[in-house]
Specification:
The protein has 405 residues and is of the alpha+beta class. It folds into 2 domains: 5-219, Up-down Bundle (Rhopdopsin 7-helix transmembrane proteins); 229-391, Reverse transcriptase/Diguanylate cyclase domain (Alpha-Beta Plaits), CATH 3.30.70. It has helices at 5-30, 33-55, 61-85, 92-108, 114-138, 144-171, 182-219, 229-246, 260-267, 269-286, 309-324, 352-368, 384-391; strands at 250-257, 292-295, 300-305, 328-330, 333-335, 339-346, 374-376. Helix 1 packs parallel to helix 7 (182-219), helix 2 (33-55) packs antiparallel against helix 3 and helix 4 (92-108) runs antiparallel to helix 5. It is elongated and about 95 Å long. The termini are far apart. The relative contact order is 0.07.
Length: 405
């Protein structure tokens, strides 16, 4: 069964053109620069292949060279799009280097050596495909079972493009019919598959990025940049499990800024927001790199420390002293910057809710004792179920006395 290569190239052109227009549209709609790069690359490549397929025999040497050079620039744009997507600057010299190498090869090689020129062009595209795969590999941030197509698609594309080099230059160096052989037909079919596969990879990357952004937004407090209650609980569960497997204790501290309501009443909510951001900075700067911290309420913050209760109290005192020493003043006068902290520790595997309940009890003891102090919990709740019943205001029903027979 034979295929007309011109028809295959035109079909690849139409597919690439439609995909390029779609990428440009979504790039403008979602304001994603990388999609615009990818879309432009597809449109340039489609235009180059279409003009070369339809009017190639009638074009002069310089115009043919220019059309091919545009195609190689499009390949360079695909590589640069992957750089832009991951926050890197475009490599402009690399963008045009392939076109320059192609132009030099056309000038230096004899006109009758069409097979060698074909393999040089395939080698240039294969190098760009390898650079794209390397960029995606270096910037991988998701699980590899989710990211493997981003590496496999350009690698396979580069491998298919290397076939004309191996078969044309090494195995059949003097075959004048090589440029019209089955390998060129396979190459044209692969162009269609690569165009579709690459767009699949692109949208997978964009989708993965959007999921990550939304997940981060759902786990981070927008004012302070710390974990919110949900994000703090999820991160703590992983740390508690890790410490439990190692048999190490964990400690929780809950911090409540003193007289925060009066700060809002006296100085306004913008000043209150600044106090919250200030305290978040104090906590971040005074806990250890292995500790987790988050804003779990209006003016309430919490931290999980993989250490003993005694070490946790030392960290809490450091936070309290740093916040007290950071007193600030507004036009209305000085602002009190003090905090009350409750600390609770437990053995390996103690649940976060149990630790928070005990630390919360210690926090209220600190407030009743005059505020601006650290209190350690004397004991943990007997069980999580008892703590839930207590917070829900449900008394444990007494067991009925046995009935005499």
């Amino acid at each position: 069964m034979s295929f007309d290569t011109s028809t295959l190239y035109l079909f690849a052109t139409m597919v690439a053109g439609m995909l390029g227009a779609m990428l440009m549209f979504f790039g403008r709609q979602e304001n994603i620069p990388a999609l615009k790069w990818w879309g432009t690359a597809y449109l340039l490549g489609a235009a180059s292949v279409a003009i070369w397929t339809i009017a190639g025999p009638t074009l002069g040497g310089p115009l043919t060279l220019a059309m091919h050079a545009v195609g190689f620039v499009a390949c360079g744009m695909v590589w640069n799009a992957s750089r832009v997507f991951h926050g890197r600057k475009p490599n402009l010299p690399g963008l045009v280097l392939g076109a320059i190498v192609w132009a030099a090869a056309v000038v230096m090689l004899p006109p009758e050596d069409a097979a060698l020129r074909l393999t040089v062009g395939a080698a240039i595209v294969a190098v760009y495909a390898a650079l794209t795969a390397a960029q995606l590999w270096n910037e991988r941030r998701g699980a590899m079972q989710k990211r493997w197509p981003t590496i496999i698609v350009p690698v396979l594309h580069g491998a298919v493009l290397m076939l004309p080099i191996l078969l044309g230059d090494l195995l059949r160096p003097h075959d004048a019919t090589f440029s019209s052989s089955v390998w060129v037909t396979a190459f044209s079919i692969e162009l269609v598959l690569y165009a579709i596969g690459t767009v699949f990879v692109i949208f997978m990357l964009v989708s993965d990025r959007a999921v990550t952004v939304h997940k981060t937004a759902a786990s981070v407090d927008p004012l302070t940049g710390m974990f919110n209650r949900r994000g703090f609980a999820e991160a703590c569960s992983r740390v508690i499990e890790r410490e439990a497997n190692a048999g190490r204790p964990v400690t929780v501290m809950i911090c409540d800024i003193d007289y925060f309501k009066s700060i809002n009443d006296r100085f306004g909510h913008p000043a209150g927001d600044e106090i919250l951001k200030l305290f978040a900075t104090v906590v971040t700067n005074n806990v250890r790199i292995s500790d987790l911290s988050g804003r779990v309420g209006g003016e309430e913050f919490a931290a999980l420390l993989p250490c003993s209760l005694e070490e946790g109290v030392i960290v809490a005192e450091r936070v309290r002293e740093a916040f007290e020493a950071s007193g600030i003043t507004c036009e209305e006068g000085p602002v009190d910057t003090t905090v009350s902290i409750g600390v609770a520790g437990g053995p390996a595997g103690t649940e976060l809710e149990v630790l928070l309940a005990a630390a919360d009890t210690a926090l209220y003891q600190a407030k009743r004792s005059g505020r601006n102090r650290v209190e350690a919990a004397e004991e943990l709740p007997l069980s999580l179920e008892n703590w839930r019943r207590k917070t829900a205001g449900i008394a444990t029903p007494a067991r009925p006395a046995p009935v005499a027979p």
